[in-house]
Structure to design on (801 residues):
């Protein structure tokens, strides 16, 4: 059975795959069979059978690392000497970390609002138009590209060459065509943070559009009809009928994008490496914990990130409950 | 019926278009990111096992069926050349060497140690990183075996042994080396303009002024070009500049004190050196030929920093010996030779300086196991046999400080020149300072502050004060 553990050839690897699939089928089949067969087993057995594996995995893969991270954030760089709140003091008082926190705030305020707004307007504009399919596909495309891929594309968009040299960056070429000086988009702080944010909006607007377009479609026809009979149209229709009707979807989109934005790392790391005052908490956490080997400070930054995400999740869950009550 | 069919087809078409476009973008992105690894140009590698004589390998014993795992930051073609150079060892002893490379080496090695998935041997490119590994994971890092230790004494200078020593114990043995005190230029452009390779630092500055005067009509042409962009390591080429100049203005002894923090990072002598660097790198008349103004140095990738030399938009670019691979990446037909398209001269010392300092770097072999086959393999890596096998397997871009290295096996003129500088007694070698400093400085604030120094014109004083403040207390 040695080949099972050290698969080298393609045949062996395929063999391992078949074994894995068989195992999966057997285990799932067993669970389904056990759950299905007897009618009179106690409820708690069913509950454990279904939620047990999930709870185990969450405990092992989420809860334990989470608790360990919180513990590490109160310890020194090698996690063996208790230092109290020192790491947090560093994270909140050193100049460079204040810029990091400021940038994270800018990201988390701008990206969800801009992406949702763009997605919403786009969804309404293309809704039931002739080009709906193509238009929706176009704006949804960036979602299919990985963050790193998108960052590399945009790095080329922003590429700078001096005015007298041939431009290879698209945006600077446009500036040169209309007679302006080429800009160092990624270098000049604080505007460079906004240019990075554009990339995230570009990726997320498609997501917002898809969800919101579906929500708009789901608005009952009679409500729209009634509003129309009352003489509502255009902007007022949008303000008083569309937006209130899709409010739950809006909340979901805003909070999902906000959580994703808090965790943004790939874009910053790929495009500027966190230099030129563009770093964000997630990037700084990686730099401290993995590049500079400071477990304590890295963990403290991770905990700060966690604390920032919690209120958004709480709000999200409460909104969900509310909408369920209405139903 | 017809209506739905058409609709379906259109929808499918849209989906297919979307999918293909996305895929194309992804493939394009991958292709461009992987392309900066040159394959070493036109020279060809020799056969490392030709005329193999196993007599020199008898000390290692019979290691049949044993395996040694290696983890390194070396990837792609260079890793293949590494693996090729292990073949004599494998054939003579029967052992197998499994090497694995990762660009995330520095981040991943501590993770692997913590999780118990430790390689037998790691190639650590920074003595400072070695120090922190020994301090953070004293049980994981093993002292070097006796045979390898003997070989180090026999084949390397005392200084190289010291770089791998932490608190009196040898933990790392030297592997490859590189020379950083080089200024790249175009011999043909110099000949056309009637410029001579400068012999002293004063000549270098005079030449820069002359190039400025000769090209007054064309604001694009500057004497120097530079780039310090390197992902999350952005800034390191600027730290090399400061180290190289400090060695010249203050001398090797002050340099050592500075590296070991016996004098503060913001010592007046360091401030003077940084000022001297600024007279070149932050002088709008001198930089940044073909690439923009001073701040464009910060966003230009270091791999592309010297390219304007080929277009004669700049004349000089200070960068290490390993930059030769970038020329062949730019254009495989470029000849890197003293009478060719591009070559490098020694970054000259001031006339008053008696010793000629050479700044360089290298990797160290660090063992995480003390099994006989691991110790034997480490000894092999410190032997002249390995150095010569590696030289044979590498067409260009590799040298070692091993005294037993046969210079005639090196095929590239710049590699030969590098070995000359490393072995010539009139030159004083010093290891890259940022690589020896604690990670928080050497791979942190030193990089980022030098980037700020250029990108947002932060003052010399503020930069040095900020780095001094970030030096770890313990």
């Amino acid at each position: 059975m040695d080949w099972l553990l050290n698969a080298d050839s393609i045949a062996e690897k395929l063999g391992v795959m078949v074994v894995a699939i068989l195992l999966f089928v057997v285990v799932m089949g067993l669970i389904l069979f056990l759950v299905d067969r007897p009618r009179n087993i106690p409820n708690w057995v069913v509950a454990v059978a279904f939620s047990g594996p999930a709870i185990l995995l969450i405990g092992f893969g989420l809860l334990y690392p989470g608790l360990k991270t919180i513990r590490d954030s109160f310890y020194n760089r090698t996690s063996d000497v208790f230092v109290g709140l020192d790491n947090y003091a560093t994270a909140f008082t050193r100049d460079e970390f204040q810029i990091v926190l400021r940038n994270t705030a800018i990201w988390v305020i701008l990206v969800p609002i801009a992406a949702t707004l763009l997605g919403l307007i786009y969804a309404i504009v293309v809704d039931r138009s002739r080009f709906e399919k193509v238009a929706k596909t176009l704006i949804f495309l960036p979602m299919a590209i990985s963050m790193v891929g998108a960052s590399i594309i945009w790095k080329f968009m922003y590429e700078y060459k001096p005015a007298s040299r041939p431009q290879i960056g698209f945006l600077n070429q446009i500036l040169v065509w209309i007679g302006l000086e080429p800009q160092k988009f990624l270098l000049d702080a604080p505007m460079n943070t906004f240019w990075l944010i554009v990339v995230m909006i570009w990726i997320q607007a498609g997501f917002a559009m898809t969800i919101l377009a579906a929500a708009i479609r789901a608005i009952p026809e009679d409500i729209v009809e009634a509003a129309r009979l009352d003489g509502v149209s255009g902007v007022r229709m949008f303000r008083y009928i569309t937006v209130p009707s899709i409010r739950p979807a809006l909340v979901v989109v805003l909070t999902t994008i906000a959580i994703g934005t808090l965790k943004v790392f790939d874009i910053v790391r790929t495009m500027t490496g966190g230099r030129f005052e563009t770093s964000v908490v997630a990037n700084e956490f990686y730099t401290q914990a993995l590049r500079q080997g400071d477990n304590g400070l890295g963990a403290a930054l991770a905990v700060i990130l966690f604390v920032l995400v919690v209120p958004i999740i709480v709000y999200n869950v409460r909104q969900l409950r509310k909408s369920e009550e209405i139903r | 019926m017809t209506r739905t069919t058409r609709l379906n087809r259109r929808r499918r078409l849209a989906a297919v278009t979307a999918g293909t476009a996305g895929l194309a973008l992804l493939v394009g992105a991958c292709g461009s990111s992987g392309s900066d690894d040159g394959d070493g140009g036109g020279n060809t590698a020799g056969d490392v096992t030709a005329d193999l004589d196993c007599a020199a390998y008898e000390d290692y014993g019979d290691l049949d069926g044993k395996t040694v795992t290696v983890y390194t930051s070396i990837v792609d073609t260079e890793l293949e050349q590494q693996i090729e150079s292990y073949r004599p060892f494998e054939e003579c002893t029967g052992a197998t060497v499994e090497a694995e490379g990762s660009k995330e080496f520095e981040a991943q090695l501590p993770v692997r140690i913590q999780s118990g998935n430790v390689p037998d041997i790691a190639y650590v490119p920074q003595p400072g990183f070695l120090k922190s590994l020994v301090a953070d994971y004293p049980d994981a890092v093993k002292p070097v075996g006796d045979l390898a230790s003997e070989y180090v004494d026999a084949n390397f200078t005392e200084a190289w042994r010291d770089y791998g020593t932490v608190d009196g114990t040898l933990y790392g043995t030297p592997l490859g080396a590189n020379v950083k005190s080089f200024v790249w230029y175009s011999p043909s452009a110099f000949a056309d303009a009637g410029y001579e390779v400068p012999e002293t630092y004063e000549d270098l500055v005079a030449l820069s002024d002359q190039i400025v005067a000769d090209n007054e009509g064309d604001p694009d042409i500057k004497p120097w070009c530079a780039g310090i962009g390197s992902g999350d390591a952005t800034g390191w080429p600027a730290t090399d500049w400061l180290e190289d100049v400090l060695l010249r203005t203050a001398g090797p002894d002050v340099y050592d004190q500075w590296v070991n923090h016996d004098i503060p990072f913001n010592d007046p002598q360091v401030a003077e050196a940084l000022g001297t660097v600024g007279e070149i790198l932050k002088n709008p008349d001198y930089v940044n030929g073909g690439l923009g103004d001073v701040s464009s140095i910060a966003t230009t990738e270091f791999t592309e920093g010297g390219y304007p030399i080929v277009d004669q938009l700049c004349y000089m670019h200070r960068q290490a010996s390993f930059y030769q691979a970038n020329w062949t990446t730019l254009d495989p037909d470029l000849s890197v030779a003293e009478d060719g398209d591009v070559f490098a001269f020694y970054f000259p010392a001031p006339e008053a300086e008696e010793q000629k300092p050479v700044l360089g770097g290298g990797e160290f072999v660090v063992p995480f196991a003390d099994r006989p086959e691991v110790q034997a393999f480490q000894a092999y890596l410190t032997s002249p046999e390995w150095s010569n096998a590696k030289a044979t397997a590498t067409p260009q871009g590799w040298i070692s400080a091993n005294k037993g290295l046969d210079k005639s096996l090196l095929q590239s003129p710049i590699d030969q020149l590098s070995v000359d500088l490393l072995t010539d007694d009139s030159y004083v070698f010093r290891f890259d300072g940022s690589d020896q400093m604690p990670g928080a400085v050497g791979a942190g604030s030193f990089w980022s502050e030098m980037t700020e120094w250029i990108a947002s014109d932060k003052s010399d004083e503020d930069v040095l004060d900020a780095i001094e403040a970030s030096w770890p207390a313990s």
Remarks:
- Chain A has a mean pLDDT of 86.
- Residues 86-326 of chain A form a domain with the MetI-like fold fold (CATH 1.10.3720.10).
- The radius of gyration of chain A is 25 Å.
- The CA atoms of residues 116 and 278 of chain A lie 23 Å apart.
